[in-house]
Design a protein that fits this description.
mainly alpha, about 70% helix, globular
């Protein structure tokens, strides 16, 4: 074990683009596949619904009602779309993050908050460009009483009825949420990891705890912005915020806080744990 730790410490902070992208792709697929049912519940709880059958009092209530009335398989509807997009998107995400962090000095000693924030923003802008169409398909399949049972059928219908722009209509609004989320997440992760593991040893527990805390903090800070992506009829972020306030008042901006934090803490912990593992394993 001691030998492994010395080897890990001896590895360069810049693993190389190919290694970072490969590790990122594997981490993304692992994270999204495992956490998809929780994401489905979060989506259901954040979408404004007029049908009483689609209004849930909590995460447990949503899980029991969906599984009993629609079947457990419903919670996995659309997972193939996410898996198809998660690999390439996370490859770009982590590849861009590590590259920009290296260029901006984020791998130097001390806490480089500005560098990690810039790198995180660059990572999500590039990866969301790839992932956004898959997220559109996923969300269309996750909503209550969705007419779609196939990723291909959903994508074909959206393209035929709404055009190519429909897959990117939420991209600017998505970035308004994901840029601050990723900037906060990466900054918190790097800070906690540096404090908890100053020797930079390979420590699964440290990566998992740092990733979970980073995900929870970032999710809590950006919960109000997350509604924008869920309101497909909104014409931009300002219009989405106006709709939320008109329908539910100030409490509407906190809608989905608990499931969002519960989603991002374990998913981020799993993602960073997987990423650091695959990055170390591929390089040795």
């Amino acid at each position: 074990m001691a030998e492994d730790e010395i080897e890990y410490e001896g590895l360069s902070s810049d693993a190389g683009l190919a290694v970072n992208m490969a590790a990122g792709a594997l981490a993304g697929i692992t994270e999204h596949a495992v956490m998809f049912p929780v994401d489905s519940i979060k989506t259901r709880m954040q979408v404004f619904a007029t049908n009483q059958a689609a209004i849930y009092s909590g995460v447990g209530n949503a899980f029991s009602r969906i599984s009993s009335t629609e079947g457990l398989r419903t919670l996995w509807r659309g997972v193939s779309s996410v898996i198809l997009g998660a690999g390439p998107a996370h490859a770009v995400h982590f590849g861009m993050y590590e590259a920009v962090k290296e260029v901006t000095g984020g791998n130097r000693g001390g806490n480089q908050f500005l560098s990690t924030s810039i790198a995180g923003a660059a990572a999500t802008i590039s990866s969301d460009a790839l992932m956004n169409p898959f997220d559109v398909v996923k969300q269309r399949m996750q909503v209550h009483n969705s007419e779609f049972r196939s990723v291909v059928a959903c994508a074909r219908t959206v393209f035929r009825t709404e055009g190519l722009a429909a897959f990117y209509i939420s991209y600017p609004t998505t970035l308004a949420m994901t840029v601050p989320f990723t900037a906060a997440q990466f900054t918190v992760y790097e800070y906690v990891k540096r404090v908890a593991n100053p020797r930079n040893e390979y420590s699964p527990v440290t990566h998992m705890v740092a990733g979970g805390l980073a995900g929870g903090v970032a999710a809590g800070l950006t919960t109000p912005l997350d509604h924008d992506a869920e309101i497909r009829g909104a014409r931009g972020m300002v219009d989405a915020l106006r709709i939320i306030y008109r329908r539910d008042g100030l409490k509407g901006f906190g809608r989905g806080l608990t499931p969002r934090v519960l989603t991002h803490m374990p998913s981020n912990a799993l993602c960073w744990l997987s990423y650091e593992f695959f990055k170390a394993a591929i390089r040795q």
